[in-house]
Amino acid sequence: MRAEVVLYVAVIVLVVLVQIFQSVGTRMAVRLDKRMTPKGKKRGLKEAGKKIKNDRLKSDFNAAWNTINARLGNHERCYVYPRGQFNQSTIDTLNKNGAAVQFIWIWDMLPSYMGSAVGRVNVSGSTDVMKAISTYEYLYKLNCKK
Predict the structure, then answer these.
(1) How many CA within 13 A on the CB side of residue 4?
(2) Is 80 helix (H, G, I), strand (E, B) or coil?
């Protein structure tokens, strides 16, 4: 009985510690991100990401693409978005500045992104490919049909 109480207390303390570390980590990431304005930092990462100026966005992506070209030779300018860190303005800015193709998680696709971005899913060595294809097809029909 006593061992169970100790176990439950240990689990509760562990959960609380994880929450504290996640909160501190998120606050530090927002505070240390040089791309965000002080006002944007108060709104958090997702909201502030919408406010990045087009010139800065263009500069950041051109610098990244130039680095890739310098190290690997000339390549098509492709971009794969991290989950939730883009909007229509971001997609349009990259298209205007030389992006050949942009990939977005299929569950984040919207009809307005069609023609500007391509939906994607993960397929790893242990993934059932047919299931991944059917998931893609289902989400495409759900999210992308006008």
Answers:
(1) 1
(2) strand
Q: Which residue has the tokens 């899913």?
A: 121
Predicted model pTM: 0.52
Structure tokens at 123: 């397929």
What does the CA dihedral 17, 40, 99, 63 come to, rounded to 10 degrees?
A: -80
Per the CB < 8 A criterion, the answer to whether 47 and 40 are in contact is yes
Beta bridge partners of 79: 102
What is the pLDDT confidence band of residue 48, given thresholds at 50, 70 and 90? very low
Contact residues for 117 (Cβ-Cβ < 8 A; gap 6+): 81, 91, 101, 102, 103, 104, 109
Residues 117, 120: Cα–Cα separation, whole Å: 10
